[in-house]
Amino acid sequence: MALRKIALLLKPDKEIDHQGNHVIVKTLSTFRNYILEFDVGVEFEEDLRIVDGRKCQTIVTWEEEQLVCVQKGEVPNRGWRHWLEGEKLYLEGKQERKTKALGRGERGGNRGASWAPGYKSDECP
User: Fold this and answer.
1) Whole-angstrom distance between the N-terminal and C-terminal Cα of the chain?
2) What's the pTM?
3) Where are the domains of the chain?
4) Which of 18, 19, 75, 92 could be 118's S-S partner, Cβ–Cβ 3.0 to 4.6 Å?
5) Residue 80: how many CB atoms within 10 A of its CB?
6) Which residues contact 36 (CB under 8 A, 6 or more apart)?
7) In terms of CATH architecture, what is 9-94?
8) Where is the composition biased (Basic and acidic residues) (predicted)?
9) Residue 79's closest CA among 103, 64, 96, 55?
């Protein structure tokens, strides 16, 4: 719980560098750094053990002006979108919620995949 509270206080810097179809995305903070390197349109194994302890097959593509990531693994339909509006970088996440069998009298929550609302990351240089 304390780790989550610390993570919510962080304001990481995001650096995105691309040369043709090769992209490097660096998420840098005082707590933890994560570097993602890939070729657009080519599936690769992403090692997310530093983030949440898992590995998955990932593909990142361009959809209009947005960089779109789809991760295949233990959590289906997971991924993110990045895009620029002016000097602001936006990130939107997607994750399919796990479902469970409900007992008598229990209520179910939202199910299925959905995109989280976009939020503003740090201003781009």
Assistant:
1) 33
2) 0.68
3) 9-94
4) 92
5) 18
6) 24, 25, 26, 27, 46
7) Beta Barrel (2.40)
8) 100-109
9) 96
